[in-house]
Amino acid sequence: MCSQNRLCWGPATLSRKTTRLEDIARLAGVSVATTSRALNDSPAVNDRTKQLIWKLAKEHDYPFRRYMPAGPIGAQGTIALVTPRPQGREGRISDPFFLELLAGVGEAARERGCDLLMSHISPATYDELAAAMNTSRADGVIFLGQSSLHGAFNRLAAGDYRFVVWGADLPEQDYCSIGSDNFSGGRRATSHLARLGRSRIVFLGDLDPPEAMQRHRGYLEALETAGLSVDADLIVPAHFEVESAEAAVDALVRRGVRFDGVVAASDQIALGAVRALEHAGLTVPGDVSVIGFDNVPFSRYSRPALSTIAQDTMKAGRLMVSKLLDHGGATAGRSERVPTDLIVRETCGG
């Protein structure tokens, strides 16, 4: 019988309270030095031996996790994905555009032999951003969204941190961001409706998030170019979700505001608009033309099929991974915009 303070041996078993590095080495049949190197993922130890030692350490509750690599062995590197607390857009993993962007990053990481880690945290301050960097064991971090953290990201760029941000290119920006040409996309969507003869065009979406703000600026410039006046009644707030947009357009119709076109800040917002218009007995595109933004998969399968502004998420993913791994992230690489493209389907005609 074993005493409380002594190591208990059975058939290759240990008392979990007293497991030491020497014990793991004895069970694995290797030296203490080899065991230590394996737990630190040293290239001097082969993968098979590492896997055996990690398995034994896990089985016997040896406190090894702080030594473990961020991802499975054999990867060329590991990239952490962190989603800041959202501003306007919900930032849920189930968000269709988020999934498209995640796929773009994932494919690019796979091409480079890297693993992805999805973080559970949602930073909302500079301290929380810094904590996400300081506690990450990955080679770098991609922040999927700027939220209201532009100033905080600038502060982060002043430190020795390796990160890239998906988002807009903003004035006095010191960090590297990759994002779509939102201004051009908003302008192109609005100009297309104006060319179709639409003269009362709604902009539907939040104005606070940087990307939506730039889409709104493109909308305003297109109205000016087309000789159309800006009407405050046609600037309609809506969150990045179907239900919010549907309620906003319902309210617009009930107020008797006249409009014949909708430029939506996202495809989900556009879908909500179409639903509200149909409930009101209005036809799309007969009475009102609608254009979304994102070109997520459901946009082509909705009825009527949704006209939209496409964002190239595959190219965006490659750019973010490349900036992070090749240029050092925040301070080395310049920000870049991914072109947008108008996809004309059934909701706007023409």
Report on this structure:
By secondary structure, the chain is an alpha/beta fold. It is 39% helix and 14% strand. It has helices at residues 21-28, 32-39, 47-59, 96-111, 126-134, 150-157, 182-195, 210-226, 242-254, 267-279, 298-301, 313-326; strands spanning 77-82, 114-118, 140-144, 163-166, 177-180, 201-204, 235-236, 261-264, 289-291, 308-311, 336-338, 340-343. The strands form three sheets. It has a six-stranded parallel sheet, with helices on one face. Strands 7-6-8-9 form a four-stranded parallel sheet, with helices on both faces. Helix 1 (21-28) packs across helix 2 (32-39). 45% of the residues are buried. Residues 1-16 have low confidence and may be disordered.
What is the compact description of this entry?
39% of the residues lie in helices and 14% in strands. It is α/β, with parallel strands linked by helices and 350 residues long.
User: Largest sheet at a glance?
Assistant: 6 strands, parallel
Helix content range: 25-40%
Given helix and strand content, the structural type is: alpha/beta
Q: What is the H/E order? A: HHHEHEHEHEEHEHEHEHEHEHEE
Q: What proportion strand?
A: 5-15%
Keywords:
350 residues; alpha/beta; six-stranded parallel sheet; 12 helices; 14% strand; elongated; disordered N terminus
